[in-house]
Amino acid sequence: ESDRIKEAIVVLDEVMAAGDSSVPRNILEKAEAIAVFPSLVKAGFVVGGSRGHGVISVRDTKSGAWSSPAFLTITGGSIGFQIGAQAIDLVLVVQNRRGLEQLLKNQFKIGASASVAAGPVGRDAQASTDIQLRAQILSYSRTRGLFAGVSLAGSTIRQDRDANERFYGVAYRTGQIVTQGLGGAPEPSSDWRAALARHGHRGPGDIRTH
Q1: In the chain, count of helices (H) and strands (E)?
Q2: Which of 40, 134, 135, 150 has the fewest Cβ atoms surrounding its Cβ within 10 A?
Q3: What φ, ψ does residue 141 adopt, rounded to 5°?
Q4: How far is residue 96's CA from residue 137's CA, in Å, rounded to a whole number?
Q5: Nearest to 121, CA basis, from 94, 146, 100, 93
Q6: DSSP label of 19
Q7: Per residue in 151-172, pLDDT tens?
Q8: Do strands 116-118 and 137-146 pair parallel, antiparallel, or not at all (unpaired)?
Q9: Kind of pairing between the strands at 156-159 and 70-94
Q10: pLDDT bucket at 144, cuts 50 / 70 / 90
Q11: What does R_g of the chain's alpha carbons equal in angstroms?
């Protein structure tokens, strides 16, 4: 679990350093929550599948501080013309409380539980009005390897309570960790929270209270 957190920090730092391919800082500054899945593996021949592990933290609506991480898994399958294997670093940016509530459930299906859209990229990019109004979660992916027909549609995100138990000593639910603060902040939680604060900082007048 510590390695997963460290890998998520590396992914976030590298994605934000990607210049024209980075997540716009203004998107992260407005985020309610951020989830990172390092090295999500997709592989298949005609029938494909994917599996990965990630972490999520939620921003406190009053203080703007980020929570300690909770652990998630993502699984999915697809049928169509596809061949090859691919490792994807996936970043999900939750834009509003409804999207967050859906993601914190025990099981969240991309494209069914809440609207998910590919987010705009570039340091100065602005999310279009259409994306802002319709998408509750914006997705960003960095791809290595070869694969035809990449899609997260139909993938399912679940709480990883086994990982939560290994890291915190108790099999907390995701919401107990990220909204109630249970479990404390075992290391390297402070490094993860610092990375989120570094890339998703809000000014003192920009804390939302809804």
Answers
A1: 7, 6
A2: 134
A3: -135, 145
A4: 8
A5: 93
A6: G
A7: 666 788 889 999 999 999 999 9
A8: parallel
A9: antiparallel
A10: low
A11: 16
Pairing, β 116-118 against β 33-58: unpaired
Q: 208 Cβ partners below 8 Å, 6+ apart?
A: 61
pLDDT at residue number 166:
95
Distance between CA atoms of residues 33 and 52, nearest Å: 19
From the CB of residue 205, how many other CB atoms can be counted at a distance below 10 Å? Answer: 5
Tokens of 6: 């460290």
**b/e sequence 161-192, b meaning 16+ C-beta within 10 Å:** bebbeebbeeebbbbbbbbeebbeeeebbeeb
pTM for this entry: 0.82
Per-residue pLDDT tens over the stretch 34-83:
999 987 766 555 455 567 899 999 999 888 899 999 999 988 765 454 55
